[in-house]
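## retry 2 of 3
previous attempt timed out at serialization; input unchanged, resubmitting
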Amino acid sequence: MTHPLGTIVRQLEMKIQDISRDLSKIKKYVHTLEDENLKLKGELARQILGDAGVEIAAGEVITDETTGEGIANLTRLYERGFHICSLNFGSRRGDQCLFCAALLRRPEGD
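## retry succeeded, writing output
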């Protein structure tokens, strides 16, 4: 005769394995969504800012002579109601964003 506690433990183990498989599937899906999101941010940046926007969306720093032009493009983008900070780049802004404002106020060369 099987002990009832042993049966309950086996059932719990099976449920945990099912949950683990589901969690793995969710993690893969989230990774796919994150990759797609990064791609879409790059496309949005390219449409609005040109090639400089792709570097900004990827989190890279622009250090060449296009910096002044890049800042002007970021300012226009911010004025159109979009985030320019790395946290929310390209998404619509509902209100002021401290990160965006700090980026705009940062002196060139920093």
